[in-house]
Design goal:
The protein is mostly helical. The protein folds into two domains: 8-71, no CATH class; 75-107, no CATH class. The protein contains six helices and no strands. The chain has helices at 13-24, 30-36, 44-55, 58-71, 75-88, 94-107. Helix 5 runs antiparallel to helix 6.
């Protein structure tokens, strides 16, 4: 079966409640969203683990991203504006300006080549070398 033919996995009822609690702001933390969704962890460490496990599920991540886009349709544009302001503000620290550049590049899917990426460029076609006598 082709990846395009695969149907997205449906969320369970609890996962739907979890996503709704986070996207609406009714649960300000992931742990509170777990509890609001009706999950019943036995203790605080298991609540943290359960929260991480739920957030690691691709179907939950996708549903949350879609819910946020519906709730805040201009979030990418607004984030880009804020990051551009930080980047252009000379009063900001270099570290903050670099972080803003990195975040902005992630929003728009710009990825720099990794250190292990090699670039194969042929300058032979681009340069005209002087002819030898």
């Amino acid at each position: 079966m082709d990846e395009q033919d695969k149907k997205p996995e449906k969320l369970t009822v609890r996962e739907q409640k979890f996503v709704a609690a986070l996207a609406s702001g009714n649960a300000p933390t992931i742990q509170e969203a777990v509890l609001a969704a009706g999950y019943k962890p036995s203790n605080t460490p298991s609540l943290r683990t359960m929260s991480q496990e739920i957030m690691a599920r691709p179907r939950v991540q996708n549903a949350l991203a879609e819910a946020i886009k519906r709730e805040f349709p201009d979030v990418e544009t607004n984030a880009a504006r804020v990051l551009l302001d930080i980047m252009s503000n000379t009063m900001e620290t270099s570290n903050n300006r670099l972080k803003a550049i990195d975040m902005l590049s992630n929003i728009f899917g710009w990825k720099a080549p990794s250190k292990s990426t090699s670039l194969k460029v042929s300058l032979k076609d681009k340069l005209t070398l002087p002819e030898e006598d």
